[in-house]
Amino acid sequence: MRISLIILFSLSIIACDAQPWVKPYERAHLADKVMIIDRDSVASSYLEHVYDAREGARGAGLASGGGCGCN
Amino acid sequence: MHVKVLVVQVWHQVVVVAVTKRIILIAVLLAQTINCATAAVLPEDRADVMFHEYDGGGVEINGPSVLVRKSVGKSVSAYAKYYVDTVSSASIDVITTASPYKEERTEIGAGLDYLHEKTKMSLSLTTSSENDYEADTTSVSISQDMFGDLTTVTLGYTKGDNVVGKNGSASFRKDIDLKVYRVSVSQVLTKDMLLSVAFDTMTDQGFLNNPYRRVRYIDAASATGYSYQEEVYPNTRTSNALAFHLRHYLPHRASVYAGYRYFVDTWSIQADTFDLGYVHAHEDNWLFEISYRFYSQSQAEFYSDMFPYFDAQTFMARDKELSSYTDHTISAGVTYEFAKDGFSVFKKGTVNLYISHMIFDYDNFKDLTVQTIPGDEPAYRFTANVYRLFASFWF
Predict the structure, then answer these.
(1) Nearest residue on chain A to B328, judged by CA atoms?
(2) How close is the nearest chain B Cα to the Cα of A6, in Å?
(3) CA of A50 to nearest chain B CA: how many angstroms apart?
(4) Fewest 10 Å CB contacts: which of B30, B36, B284, B335?
(5) CATH number of the domain enclosing B277
(6) Model-level pTM?
(7) ipTM, 2 dp
(8) Which one has a higher pLDDT value, B124 or A14?
């Protein structure tokens, strides 16, 4: 528990005082639409739904909502 | 005896004080982490109108989907979603054990995002209805930007209350409860590279099999050499999924990405998913994307293509999604951006078309449309195409 608190304390300090190694003015590429992971959520969540219905595995993706979609 | 009681009381007080101190300390540390934040952003105001279609394996599913998102003030963004699946099914399951059918599923959803400095809290509600299945899903999550906005940590929880019905049996009504706990981290690695990691743990409880699907078993008295009985699943399933996604910016305004997901559940299914993609911007108006995805899973421990006799096991399944198989998906898409200077109330718009081709190869799910000695049928395989045609408007 003590070690956990030390780690949490360290993280809380770093979270406030950390100097980002990628400065705000260096983030133009990261903000470009080619770098957006879920660019069009209406389309990506549909494909996730297809995978959920056709495969035994699921999770750690983008899908939400319910329904069977079986057979 | 007195001494023993006194010792227990003192020890109890010490424990309570220690625990209380630790809770206060943790709360202070978390508050400090959150308070050092300054700013983050809500999703953009936009509307999406999509027509989607899945066509393959004797199943055709299509319909519209509409998503509208609008901010309310500087701290709140709200969205509403409407989605329809019109299903026409003559799948391998249906044509070998039942009759082709048509049905419609309608999904309505709404959600709110609330932003306070670098903390975003989200709530979403979804209800889905079809003639033999009702699903209500509630999700909450909290995201925190930290470490100079290079890291975003999200904690999420989803609860689903589903009711399974059965056409032709008005009294058939079974419940499924779903719970999903999620933690995800999005990390800026360099000025050109992003990494996201997500872990979900999921529990399903209730009637988890399909009320129509049946398993086959060897029956010498039958003309085909086999007969069918209803499938039986365990009423609990716990699953874990861990996924990584890495994306890198390329100098000519393009990006390449790779992902991997590991899945395992208490039904002994293990699955690996790999995906690889390339996104390319051309001039200011065009965006092209191609991707490849590979999926492989092992079978559930109670799956069999053909059981040796009636009631051979406590749990029995012949669902091809619980068998051992692989699938491949090749996707290509194009986006065209128009009216970048705005039109009417809109700032800009896009039209988009994405096409995916899927190939499913089953190892031990046999194609029963082929008449031969039971068990000697060829393994089933099929292909499917998925179309997503949509327009998006920013306002």
Answers:
(1) A51
(2) 10
(3) 8
(4) B284
(5) 2.40.160
(6) 0.85
(7) 0.87
(8) B124
